[in-house]
Write a structure and sequence with these properties.
The chain has 219 residues and is of the alpha+beta class. Strands 1-2-6-3 form a four-stranded antiparallel beta sheet, with helices on both faces. The chain has a two-stranded antiparallel sheet with strand order 4-5. The structure holds cobalamin and iron/sulfur cluster (2 copies).
Length: 219
């Protein structure tokens, strides 16, 4: 079972769907457009200890270690199950968030990160498996969008430079702040706006995982 193989690495299936004619489906193992996709990801930081264990045996200066780990693990599982594995960081970028909205019925939070009814903002995608056959999968029930029910929207009020607003994410202001001496809190504990969200608190990433992601983001 794919689920079992993924669970050994702290990963989970995040739904999937069959492509339709209008989709620009990426290639499957045969080189022809894939017929179906299953998304692979994480709830909370479940893969973190598995990744850290793998990381210990690798060179300290390895570039993009989390991507390398994800590609290695998901690629091996894909080949076992006859699927081509792709990564969210493959270029040109594949529309992972659009796929995720379709696969799990999620909607974006005001931060751009998709809001999950259970995991809140504490989930991500580590890869996708592309199949050359159609799969039998139930379309998702529409998920409750917790942001619609959130009155105070604390995620829009904690950033020292107001990088998240109704007009989107001010990448430059954010990254300049994170790299500056004043950005220590973001560097050490992660984005203050993301951490201000009360949803999915039990899935919040530990500080060392947040610091790792922030260092990669601000590089
Ligand atoms: C490039 C990129 C960025 C860029 C620009 C984002 C942008 N304006 O599109 C930057 C560097 C700013 C960025 C930052 C972050 N990102 Co980013 N990013 C991506 C990446 C690799 C490609 C986006 C893309 O162009 N896709 C191609 C288009 C065609 O696909 P799409 O589904 O239509 O893309 C949607 C997104 O671009 C989204 N979007 C637009 N603006 C923003 C802004 C933010 C902050 C996010 C999260 C999404 C987002 O709207 C599009 C329409 O649905 C995706 C992975 C992927 N392949 O999608 C991750 C991804 C969107 N990022 C993700 C995350 C978590 C982040 C961060 C919050 C944390 C981090 N990893 O550093 C930070 C935000 C930092 C902060 N301080 O808040 C996650 C979101 C997971 C989720 N639960 O929804 C993704 C899916 C990666 C993953 N492995 O799961 N990111
Ligand atoms: S604080 Fe409220 S609006 Fe912001 S992400 Fe969390 S639930 Fe959504
Ligand atoms: S990482 Fe820091 S500077 Fe960037 S949006 Fe979050 S709180 Fe603001």
């Amino acid at each position: 079972m794919i689920e079992q193989a993924l669970a050994e690495h702290g990963l989970i299936l995040r739904g999937g769907f069959n492509f339709v004619e209008a989709d620009a489906a990426p290639a499957s193992v045969t080189g022809e457009p894939a017929k179906a996709v299953l998304l692979v990801g994480q709830a909370g930081a479940a893969p973190w200890p598995h990744f850290l264990k793998w990381r210990q045996a690798k060179a300290d200066d390895m570039a993009n270690p989390l991507d390398t780990w994800s590609r290695e693990v998901i690629g091996e599982i894909g080949s076992r199950f006859g699927a081509r594995a792709v990564s969210p960081n493959d270029k040109p970028f594949l529309p992972f968030q659009q796929w995720a909205m379709r696969a799990e019925g999620l909607k974006p939070s005001p931060l751009g990160i998709l809001m999950h009814p259970r995991y809140g903002l504490w989930h991500a995608y580590r890869g996708a498996l592309l199949f050359d056959v159609r799969i039998s999968i139930q379309p998702p029930a529409e998920a409750i969008h917790l942001c619609d029910l959130c009155v105070g929207k604390p995620c829009m009020k904690s950033c020292p430079v107001g990088a998240h607003s109704e007009s989107g994410f001010a990448y430059k202001s954010c990254v300049e702040h994170v790299r500056s001496p004043a950005g220590e809190a973001c560097r050490e504990r992660g984005c203050l706006d993301r951490n201000a969200c009360p949803e999915g608190a039990g899935y919040r990433y530990p500080a060392d995982a947040q610091a790792f992601h922030m260092a990669a983001f601000a590089r």
